[in-house]
Structures are given as structure tokens and as C-alpha cells.
Amino acid sequence: FFAPGDLCGGGDSASSSSECDGEESDDEAAQEPGPDAIMGSWRCVDTWGLDEFLKATGVGWAQRRLAAAAKWPAWEFHRLDGGGVRFTNHSQIGDLIEDMPLGRDYAWKDGHQNAFTCRTEWIPDAHGGVLKTSRSGFVASYVEERCVSDDKLKFTLNHSAGVSWGRAFTRD
């Protein structure tokens, strides 16, 4: 089973907002360093909206059941030479790795080998920041936001069809 942005599902729980909190002005953001706030290991503690998202995007009942039963992932982020981010998703189907250069387009394939053009940006704020990835391909277009505030990370995937789902993580 494949769920965009996570590659392996997990059960739904309480609903949560899909917007990042605590936006800073451009002047304040410009003074912040790179994506250090997201670096390290993260443990998933909540998932919301996945079943509704999968229904809305045409995923059948059997695959949704598998997604709901899947173990929640652990994530890691490490700095790449040149300033990008290496994202490792320790999912039920194994480790999935994506190298995300910052501020430029790059090619990426999802778990079904669908090709996407992606762009990842780091948007800093006083308590962390947002790692924002836009993905566009033949099968879909969506935006992933990983909002870091101190030792909490909130992931939201917003699909071009107007549906979203997400996860909450705490720092390990």
C-alpha cells in the first residue's frame, strides 16, 4: 500500500488542523538559520484524516484497511552537503529515503514509481520552521508541510483535490 507523503499508512485518530501555526514576518524569517530545527529523529504519536483522504482519492476499502493497520513510522532528517535535507522514513515496508535539495526543482518517484517534479523550501520561524515540498506529476499534485515547533513536528499533506491528512511527531 502507498499513501503519498508517507508511503505507508497508519490508523486515524483525532482530527487536527492542516495549517502551520506561528508564521513569522519576512524580516524575522530572514534572520533564522537553515533547517537545523528539523534535523534528528522523530517518533509518530498521532495520525488524522488518512481514511477520508484515501476515500476521496479513490483508494478502495481493502487498501484503506491495510493503511489503518500499518505501524506508525519513525522519521529522520539529516543535512546533505550543499545544504539540502536527507529524509528517511522508517516505514512498515522498509526504509524509504529522499534527498531534498533546497530551493530548486528535482525529480522524485513515489512508491508506485510515479514520476514527480518537486521543490522543497525551508521557511524558518522563531520556534523552528516549515519544510515545505510541492510535488507535481501525472497522477496528482500536492503539497507536504512538515512544521517544527520546538520538539514537535506536524506533517500535513494537502492534495490538489482539496483533501488533506497528517501526522504528529515528537523528537526522539
Order of helices and strands: HEHHEEEEEEEEE
Helix content: 10-25%
Taking pLDDT < 50 over at least 5 consecutive residues as the criterion, the unreliable ranges are 5-19, 22-32
Overall 3D shape? globular
- Structural class based on helices, strands and sheet pairing: mainly beta
**Between the first and last Cα atoms, what is the distance in angstroms?**
26 Å
Spatial strand order of the main sheet = 4-3-2-1-10-9-8-7-6-5
| Residue fraction in strands | over 45%
Please compute the radius of gyration using only Cα atoms.
Answer: 15 Å
The number of helical segments is: 3
Secondary structure elements and their pairing?
Elements lengths: L25 H5 L9 E9 L1 H7 L4 H9 L4 E6 L5 E7 L2 E7 L4 E5 L5 E11 L2 E10 L3 E9 L2 E8 L4 E8 L1
Antiparallel strand pairs: 1-2, 1-10, 2-3, 3-4, 5-6, 6-7, 7-8, 8-9, 9-10
